[in-house]
């Protein structure tokens, strides 16, 4: 079998349909609940060819051990220059010059560039600094809850989850209030693939230009005011020659998009998991000291980062027994790894007492999320505030009516109608 030939269909379990090759990762049933498919893929083997809605094919790593190994595999690089022509034809959907100007961030860098760039952001997200800001996070959460209707129902995305992470992020990175008020959440959708022939392409490009202009305004403001905060220090590093203009813009792009949208989505996936397990919701409300451990389990149970971004071999390589051509994209399924029964007993259960809980929701190794401590604190504050101040909190629509976002890499919903008895 050559590298270019399709692999034979995996032998099915008795009574099961054979897995397609490639396995399509698309459609409402898949986005609503990908876990049955991930279970079949884990059982069939650690690596599968998959097909995304954009038409791009990739190699998906499932299973905890295989995922952990891939995240640590220094043969796999993140820089898009490693991608081959087949990948580039469909996956590099952000047009030039924006691709070059906004994609030079940490998620797409390898050492030594990654090491050099990462050191500029780590101090802003240390656990000690995050803890010092927790009272402010609580104020922000309470203010948003104060604005909710006195009795339910209310959309907890529109009324809370869409705003809280960005307000927190603005505090942490030094985004001034006047600029924060101008940010359009729809700009974050530029990370969702829209191909060149898609009818939605003009709107996609308009959002892209809007975000790029906004980033330019942020840089201009910080350069004029000389603020000693993360954004200000990044601008100083650019002006001192330690970052290129493309690296500066890309890092701000990553902060604004990756720094808030995944937390918005994780709030929704966490609430949905609790709504589906009302006994656990009631227990958490009665025992808020469980929140730190509960957040870890909610991250494991249904992570907002479903899949990692691309990785590439620079030569034809073996990946857990599968030959992967150079420049083909390799993606790790964090959600599939976090439900692996070989690592997590009864993995589909929501167990707030689960310990240890070495989930991979924030990735692993050199690309471990630098904002993990911040995300954990945000989730603890958000869930604690909502459960404490909205007694009787429950899902106000049928579970099957939840509309999951069609994002390729993430999980979440843009609307979460919830009922509650009153607002405390």
TrEMBL record:
InterPro entries: Cyt_P450, Cyt_P450_B, Cyt_P450_sf. Keywords: Heme, Iron, Metal-binding, Monooxygenase, Oxidoreductase. It comes from the Bacteria. One of its GO terms (molecular function) is oxidoreductase activity, acting on paired donors, with incorporation or reduction of molecular oxygen. Residues 1-22 are annotated as: Disordered. SUPFAM superfamilies: Cytochrome P450 (SSF48264). Pfam families: p450. Belongs to the cytochrome P450 family. This is Cytochrome P450.
């Amino acid at each position: 079998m050559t590298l270019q030939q399709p692999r034979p269909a995996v032998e099915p379990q008795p009574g099961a349909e054979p897995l397609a090759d490639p396995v399509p990762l698309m459609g409402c049933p898949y986005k609503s609940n990908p876990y049955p498919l991930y279970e079949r893929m884990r059982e069939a083997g650690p690596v599968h060819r998959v097909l995304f809605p954009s038409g791009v094919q990739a190699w998906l790593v499932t299973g905890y051990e295989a995922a952990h190994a891939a995240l640590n595999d220094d043969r796999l690089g993140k820089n898009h220059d490693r991608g081959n022509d087949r990948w580039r034809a469909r996956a590099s959907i952000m047009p030039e010059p924006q691709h070059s100007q906004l994609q030079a961030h940490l998620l797409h860098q390898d050492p030594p560039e990654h090491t050099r760039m990462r050191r500029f952001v780590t101090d802003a997200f240390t656990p000690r600094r995050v803890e010092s800001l927790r009272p402010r996070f609580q104020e922000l959460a309470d203010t948003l809850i104060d604005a909710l209707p006195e009795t339910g129902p209310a959309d907890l995305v529109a009324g809370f989850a869409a705003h809280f992470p960005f307000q927190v992020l603005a505090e942490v990175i030094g985004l001034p209030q006047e600029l924060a008020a101008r940010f359009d959440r729809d700009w974050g959708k530029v990370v969702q693939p829209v191909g060149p022939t898609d009818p939605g392409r003009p709107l996609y490009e308009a959002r892209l230009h809007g975000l790029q202009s906004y980033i330019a305004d942020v840089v201009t403001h910080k350069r004029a005011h000389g603020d000693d905060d993360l954004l200000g220090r990044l601008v100083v590093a650019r002006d001192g020659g330690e970052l290129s203009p493309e690296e500066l813009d890309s890092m701000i792009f990553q902060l604004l998009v990756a720094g808030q949208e995944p937390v918005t989505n994780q709030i929704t996936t966490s609430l949905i998991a609790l709504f589906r397990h009302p006994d656990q919701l009631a227990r958490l409300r009665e025992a808020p000291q469980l929140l730190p451990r509960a957040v870890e389990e909610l991250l494991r149970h249904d992570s907002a980062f479903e899949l990692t971004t691309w990785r590439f071999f620079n030569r034809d390589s073996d990946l857990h027994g599968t030959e992967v051509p150079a420049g083909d994209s390799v993606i790790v399924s964090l959600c599939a790894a976090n439900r692996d029964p070989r690592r997590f007993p009864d993995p589909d259960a929501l167990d707030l007492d689960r310990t240890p809980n070495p989930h991979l929701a924030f990735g692993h190794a050199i690309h471990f999320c630098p904002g993990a401590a911040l995300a954990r604190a945000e989730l603890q504050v958000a869930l604690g505030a909502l459960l404490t101040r909205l007694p009787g909190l429950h899902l106000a629509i049928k579970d099957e009516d939840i509309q999951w976002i069609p994002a390729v890499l993430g999980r979440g919903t843009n609307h979460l109608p919830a009922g509650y008895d009153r607002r405390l």
